[in-house]
Design a protein that fits this description.
The protein is mainly alpha-helical. The chain has 16 helices and no strands. The radius of gyration is 21 Å and the shape is globular.
């Protein structure tokens, strides 16, 4: 019995290490890539349209494939899909570092997103499979901490690498980490975890979902154009067809029954609203610091990194506390503090003291730190063991959809008030009005999230763990 306990603990620690490393790499790549885009543009001589597609295809591939891979992990094994994701992501990173044109870099960035979707689709599911419900909050807290350490270090370390060793070094940075992950999985993580072994994978539903979610996200991000609105409408129709198909399917990639519980539906909705409310903040403040306050990119990155640092510091202890106390309290208080931080950021002006945006960033970081791991724990705790992969992928989908909608709302506000112009002194006032409007809108969305968090309910304990 003692040997079995030692083995289980070793498996849990290895799974946590593997998932934490994987969840660090992806946000690190995404946030550091934004710093390197100007250097890539000059080195590969790509136009602004092609350049914008490099990070865009990364996000789209994540959002489009994460749910099908979550379902596939439930069927063939969560560790297997996670491992293939690590291999694809590592290979794509190596190929991206060798790219000789913008087109090649876009292709390999898409491959990175594909591998990333496999990692994120199964990461939370793996942790939920090996950790009992009374220890899961702490494990998920460490997972969230890893994500935000990646977001914190991305602009800082990515900027250092790009400036001193070139943009290719950012992609190469992923390769040894990917090899380490693969070695750990193969040598120290025996066994497999699946909840729906033997069931069929629905290809038709996966294709409808993938195409529809791409259309929705791309259409919303270009909502200010006629073609964007048409594509968005096609995507919404496609999602409706997908939901009808899933309701009738014997082997759906999204089991709609998981949303029959209030706690599942409202937890997922709260996570969606939180990501809508906070994602565009980085872009808005980056423009404000550099264009209005004339701060340099390195100082801007250092100031903005205060927010993910706060989340990284809080997520693990909050996750541990959420295992012991009613975790709804953390979610509600986190949403309230986030709303307050966004309201403070809506007051920025030409002569605002630097301490005001820093205070707003700190409050949003504290709010996210209190909110993220307890809400994730509550959602996963309400899902049956066989559907952990599906549940994990659903959570990640909420995050990516929320991020895209947040940026889409920001672009729509800028297009409405500012138009397609560069930010120059003559339109600084209009830019500030657009920025304030955006933060007020996001504060309102976060306020709705407070109400949703109150309505979710208390702590959920799910004993139906499956360990194969």
């Amino acid at each position: 019995m003692d040997i079995d306990k030692i083995h289980e603990k070793k498996v849990r620690n290895t799974a946590l290490l593997v998932v934490a490393l994987g969840s660090f790499l992806i946000p690190f790549m995404g946030s550091s890539l934004n710093i390197a885009l100007p250097i890539i543009q000059k080195d590969l001589a790509v136009n602004i349209i092609l350049l914008s597609w490099i990070p865009t295809v990364f996000v789209l591939a994540n959002a489009a494939f994460i749910l099908p891979f979550g379902r596939l992990g439930d069927i063939v094994g969560r560790k297997k899909i996670f491992t293939y994701g690590v291999l694809i992501y590592t290979l794509a990173s190596l190929l991206a570092s060798l790219s000789t044109s913008g087109i090649f870099l876009i292709i390999f960035s898409f491959m990175q997103g594909l591998g990333c979707s496999m990692i994120f689709a199964t990461g939370v599911a793996l942790l939920s499979s090996v950790y009992p419900s009374d220890q899961r909050g702490e494990a998920l807290g460490i997972y969230v901490t890893s994500v935000y350490i990646g977001l914190f270090l991305g602009p800082l370390l990515g900027g250092f690498l790009a400036q001193n060793f070139g943009w290719r070094s950012i992609f190469l940075f992923n390769v040894p980490f990917g090899m380490l992950l693969f070695t750990l999985i193969k040598m120290r993580l025996p066994g497999e975890w699946s909840g729906s072994a033997g069931e069929k994978f629905e290809i038709r539903g996966s294709i409808i979902y993938t195409l529809s979610i791409v259309a929705v996200l791309y259409g919303f991000s270009t909502l200010q154009t006629d073609i964007g609105r048409i594509i968005l409408l096609i995507g919404v129709i496609g999602v409706s067809i997908f939901l009808i198909n899933e309701k009738k399917s014997l082997n759906p990639i999204l089991r709609l029954s998981i949303f029959r519980k209030r706690i599942s539906t409202l937890s997922a909705l709260a996570l969606l609203l939180m990501n809508i409310a906070t994602t565009a903040m980085w872009t808005l403040l980056s423009l404000y610091f550099q264009d209005i306050l004339y701060l340099g990119p390195q100082l801007t990155a250092l100031i903005i990194s205060v927010q993910p640092l706060m989340v990284a510091l809080l997520s693990t202890p909050v996750g541990r506390l959420s295992d012991r106390f009613e975790n709804r309290i953390f979610s509600v208080v986190g949403m309230v503090i986030t709303t307050l931080g966004l309201l403070i950021l809506s007051q920025l002006s030409f002569n605002t003291g630097l301490w005001i945006p820093i205070t707003g960033l700190v409050l949003v970081g504290i709010g996210l730190g209190l909110f993220s791991s307890p809400t994730t724990n509550r959602f996963i705790g309400s899902v049956e063991g066989r559907d952990y992969g599906m549940g994990s992928a659903t959570l990640s989908t909420m995050i990516y959809v929320g991020q895209t909608l947040s940026l889409g709302i920001m672009l729509f506000i800028f297009a409405t008030f500012l138009g397609s112009v560069q930010i120059i002194p003559s339109n600084f006032s209009t830019f500030l009005f657009s920025l304030k409007t955006a933060f007020i809108v996001f504060a309102v969305i976060s306020g709705v999230g407070v109400i949703i968090s109150v309505l979710i309910g208390g702590k959920v304990v799910n004993k139906d763990l499956i360990y194969d």
